[in-house]
């Protein structure tokens, strides 16, 4: 069984690998540059879910991939401010795509204002934290939780929700 993840982002690959290893899947995980086909900065639950599903479903069209994972970050407006959100999708040939959402935190107003003005969170977080490529490391969630929950751990939880919903991994 071949499994792909629709990203080359190390935080996403690490999350997928760690959880697949935990459930006994020890074969290679194939990272693919999968288009999300949503905006660079998804601005709603719907857009972020769609991005995760598009990434996973694209991977199934590449080579002989049996199962594919898509992980996507975004933000959404709430009456309490702009929240960081994350979703995952697990696509499998001949089956309905499984979806799960992860932890969400409110972003500081100075970050939210820049995103509302059209900037992307990745570069804004680099600027704010002075850490290069923060989106591939602890991520915004890691910065704003002082390392209590880093981006890979947050995606790991989503991965558990995905593989858990699929159920039986013995074939
Ligand atoms: O520093 C960050 N910490 C985060 O927690 C986070 N969540 C989202 N984003 C940014 O939101 C956009 C879409 O996210 P995204 O998941 O589609 O893309 P990504 O660039 O992170 O990965 P990938 O496209 O290589 O797979 C991109 O501008 C990301 O940089 C984050 N940046």
UniProtKB/TrEMBL annotation:
Catalytic activity: XTP + H2O = XDP + phosphate + H(+); ITP + H2O = IDP + phosphate + H(+)
The EC number(s) this enzyme carries: 3.6.1.73
Name under which the protein is recorded: inosine/xanthosine triphosphatase
Organism field: Lederbergia citrisecunda
Record-linked Pfam families: NTPase_I-T
Signal peptide positions on this chain: none
Keywords: Hydrolase, Magnesium, Manganese, Metal-binding, Nucleotide metabolism, Nucleotide-binding
Top-level EC class as recorded in UniProt: hydrolase
């Amino acid at each position: 069984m071949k499994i792909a993840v629709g990203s080359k982002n190390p935080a996403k690959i690490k999350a997928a690998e760690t959880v697949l290893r935990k459930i006994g899947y020890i074969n290679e995980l194939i990272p693919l540059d999968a288009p999300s086909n949503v905006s660079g900065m998804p601005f709603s639950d719907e857009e972020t879910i769609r991005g995760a599903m598009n990434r996973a479903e694209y991977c199934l069209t590449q080579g002989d991939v049996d199962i594919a994972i898509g992980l996507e970050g975004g933000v959404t407006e709430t009456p309490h401010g702009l929240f960081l959100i994350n979703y995952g999708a697990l696509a499998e040939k001949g089956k309905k795509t499984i979806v799960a959402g992860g932890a969400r935190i409110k972003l500081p107003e100075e970050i939210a204002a820049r995103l509302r003005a059209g900037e992307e969170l990745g570069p804004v977080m680099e600027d704010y934290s002075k850490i290069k490529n923060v989106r591939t490391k602890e991520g915004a969630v890691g910065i704003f939780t002082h390392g209590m929950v880093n981006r890979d751990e947050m995606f790991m939880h989503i991965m558990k929700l995905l593989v858990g919903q699929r159920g039986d991994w013995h074939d």
